[in-house]
Design a protein that fits this description.
The chain is of the alpha/beta class. It has 13 helices and eleven strands. The protein has two domains: about 130 residues, Aspartate Aminotransferase, domain 1, CATH 3.90.1150.10; about 220 residues, Aspartate Aminotransferase, domain 2.
Length: about 375
């Protein structure tokens, strides 16, 4: 009899995420204000679009399997060696490589309950087990609890997003340094810096090119290229060699390589996105204060609005969708009474604000 491997068969069939396209098919809406996936509403750099458009006729070529020019530019940006960079088709892909490489079947990983879930799907898929630390009551990541669990359970990998999704919270340099030192030295820290571009470079953990640290960055957020699927890890040479052994040789889209390289050459555009995103957060804080929906401070491209209860948060999300505005919400307490809204352009924010006012006025909550 043909059967999947036991670890795979044991996984329930779930849809981790219902995409906006499905929501549109289900609801019959022909347009959505996309504020649900922390995509960058400010788009990619026009220079990246130009470079990708010019490269399109070469789509019959595979991309450079070494992503050499891109890694060269990334090594210069991060002041490391090209041997310390590996490119993948987004951080989601690199998470899979890290779990496959470091968590053996029956192994363990630790993360925050309700944080970015893709890492967890990889752990389950490769036959590992997960332990969770809850968020603190104030919605921040509980670094002390993560250390405590790691010391007790000696996981092969600990996953931390900093800044975090969905909380938006951030542990600055000194706190992260102490956290990193406190972890057991046989636990690898997978430090997901998907939102690292929105934080001053001097505030993130200093570079440690040690075997027990893998940090990841993406072109999906501040660079506005989520659909291109490209991201990278900064890691020790040994870890990069390990990833190189198991990654898909041609797994990175050729046009994504072209666009990523051109994006790096347009720092002015990147800076403008970071500025616009900060302005969008400020606008959301003000809106929340005005409407009686307290917000959490965020160092990302999204803001959480406190709806007071899980039921009210679900209702607000559903009613906004009826009005053509797509947002999402965290699933796990204590953040499950919040809705999460991505930074939008001024017109998108106006549409959200109008729909939200309408919902709060009309919906009995
Ligand atoms: C958006 C996001 C990712 C996804 O990154 P890709 O490079 O698009 O795969 C990873 N981690 C966190 C915390 C995110 O919010």
């Amino acid at each position: 009899m043909i059967r999947p491997a036991p670890a795979i068969e044991a996984i329930p069939a779930t849809t981790p995420f219902i995409g906006p396209e499905q929501l549109m098919r289900d609801s019959g809406l022909s347009e959505l204000v996309r504020l649900g996936a922390n995509e960058s509403a400010f788009g990619p750099s026009p220079k990246a679009v130009e470079a990708m458009a010019a490269a399109l006729p070469h789509l019959w070529w595979y991309g450079d399997p070494e992503s050499y020019e891109l890694r060269e530019a990334l090594a210069a940006k991060h002041d490391c060696a090209i041997e310390q960079i590996v490119v993948g088709s987004g951080i989601d892909d690199l998470m899979g490589l890290a779990v496959r490489a470091f968590v053996p079947p029956g192994g363990r990983a630790v993360t925050t309950a309700g944080s970015y879930p893709t890492f967890n799907y990889h752990v389950t898929g490769y036959g590992g087990a997960l332990s969770f630390a809850p968020y603190r009551e104030d919605g921040t990541v509980d670094l002390d609890a993560l250390v405590e669990i790691a010391r007790r359970e000696r996981p092969q990998v600990l996953y931390l997003a900093n800044p975090d999704n969905p909380s938006g919270s951030f542990a600055a340099r000194a706190r992260m340094q102490a956290f990193y030192e406190a972890l057991p030295h046989d636990t690898l820290l997978f430090l997901d810096e998907a939102y690292g571009d929105f934080v001053d470079a001097g505030d993130v953990l200093p570079p440690h090119l040690e075997d027990r640290l893998v940090r990841t960055r993406t072109f999906s957020k501040a660079y506005g290229m989520a659909g291109a699927r490209i991201g990278y890890a900064i890691a020790s040479e040994r870890n990069v060699r390990t990833f190189q052994k198991i990654r898909l040789h041609y797994g990175v889209n050729r046009n994504a390589q072209v666009g990523a390289l051109a994006s790096l050459a347009d720092p002015a555009f990147h800076a403008s996105v970071v500025r616009e995103t900060a302005a969008a957060r400020e606008a959301y804080y003000a809106l929340g204060a005005e409407l009686g929906l307290p917000t959490l401070p965020s160092l990302t491209n999204f803001v959480l609005f406190d709806c007071g209860s899980v039921a009210r948060a679900n209702l607000v999300m559903a009613e906004l969708l009826k009005r053509g505005v797509w947002i999402r919400k965290p699933a796990v307490a204590p953040l499950d009474r919040y809705v999460r809204v991505s930074a939008g352009t001024a017109p998108m924010r106006a549409a959200f604000s109008q729909a939200l006012r309408d919902v709060l006025a009309q919906v009995p909550v």
